[in-house]
Write a structure and sequence with these properties.
Layout: E1 3-4, H1 20-27, E2 43-47, H2 51-60, E3 74-79, H3 92-104, E4 109-112, H4 118-122, H5 131-134, E5 138-139, E6 154-158, E7 166-170, E8 178-182, E9 184-188, E10 192-194, H6 196-199, H7 206-214, H8 222-233, E11 240-249, E12 260-261, E13 265-269, H9 272-282, H10 291-298, E14 312-313
Helix pairs in contact: 2-3, 8-10
């Protein structure tokens, strides 16, 4: 049976925090409010139809999962799983491969930071082989959209951002040693593209997410939404991003159904911005038109220019 996260004493007074920086300085991991723990951006791209093994290969090209997940550490996975129409969600083959690598690296705990339903895992041809690993996940069932704030599981933080000033986010985000973002590359009606940066909205409550769409006074204002997404990402930068760009929704996103293409690629990297930028290019978007990328680079989260990197391919 999957374990459910229940940590009452992690933050005693979430609603009374004076500032996010004070909070970060006292109990959060060192990479909160900072860039990725990796010193230099790295990008790997693996092509083919074996999504499970290609995911493993993509991380091996970056130095292997032990580079990111140390022995007895806690890994948090943020998987874009909560959609019914494929390919609107990350292939479970990809997610199971990441799960396996984390446990193989010696993680003491692997958690899914947003609820992942049993049927998601069961869609994979690798489900039965790795069911024992799936059963050992700490699954945050309470964080299922539309999630509501409660003091046991969420914290209301001041955000050091431009547009987003406060956010209700899961406490578990600050309890994991390594954050692995596992989005799917796809179209989005408001932001053009949704990938790693936008996937981080999965850490926050419905109230926070709705505010990001409405609080500018204009519903789904692309500029305001993009800035809020970037601001939210400032709370914690993913240590590793693994994007499913195998079968991609190119219209009617994020839910689908819509038009699709098959780049058949797993794109992994230490810089969320460059991973998103590379995937945007696969979809045929002009990178400078995707405001989340432009604003994220301006904020110093990462670089849009993947052409300056030495991309490792297989």
């Amino acid at each position: 049976m999957k374990k459910n996260y229940n940590r009452r004493s992690f933050i005693k007074s979430s609603g009374l925090l004076g500032s996010a920086l004070l909070f970060a300085g006292s109990i959060l991991p060192e990479n909160i409010f900072s860039r990725s723990s990796a010193k230099k951006p790295a990008l790997s791209v693996v092509s083919g139809t074996d999504y499970f093994n290609n995911t493993i290969k993509s991380v091996e090209l970056l130095g292997g999962m032990k580079r990111f997940v140390k022995k007895r550490s806690k890994a948090g996975l943020l998987i874009n799983s909560d959609f019914d129409t494929f390919p609107a969600y990350t292939s479970p083959d990809v997610a199971i491969a990441v799960l396996k690598m984390c446990f193989d690296a010696g993680a003491s705990e692997v958690s899914t930071l947003q609820n992942v339903k049993p049927e998601y895992w069961q869609r994979s041809q690798h489900y039965e082989t790795h069911k024992n690993l799936i059963d050992n996940i700490v699954n945050l069932e309470f964080n299922q959209f539309p999630s509501k704030f409660d003091e046991e599981n969420f914290v209301n933080l001041e955000v050091p951002g431009v547009s987003l000033k406060r956010a209700e986010v899961i406490k578990k985000l600050f309890d994991v040693d390594v954050l692995i973002n596992i989005p799917v590359a796809k179209h989005h009606g408001s932001t053009i593209y949704t990938g790693a940066l936008k996937n981080m909205m999965g850490i926050s409550t419905r109230k926070t997410n709705v505010g990001m769409h409405l609080d500018s006074g204009v519903r789904n204002d692309p500029d305001y939404l993009a800035q809020c997404i970037v601001d939210l990402n400032q709370l914690r930068i993913a240590d590793l991003t693994i994007t499913d760009a195998t079968e991609v929704l190119t219209s009617n996103g994020p839910m689908g159904p819509g038009d699709t293409i098959k780049p058949l690629k797993i794109v992994a990297g230490t810089d969320m911005v460059v991973v998103d930028s590379y995937c945007c290019n696969l979809l045929g978007h002009r990178i400078g038109e995707v405001l989340t990328l432009v604003k994220a680079e301006k904020a110093g989260i990462g670089t849009m220019d993947f052409n300056k990197l030495s991309i490792k391919t297989a």
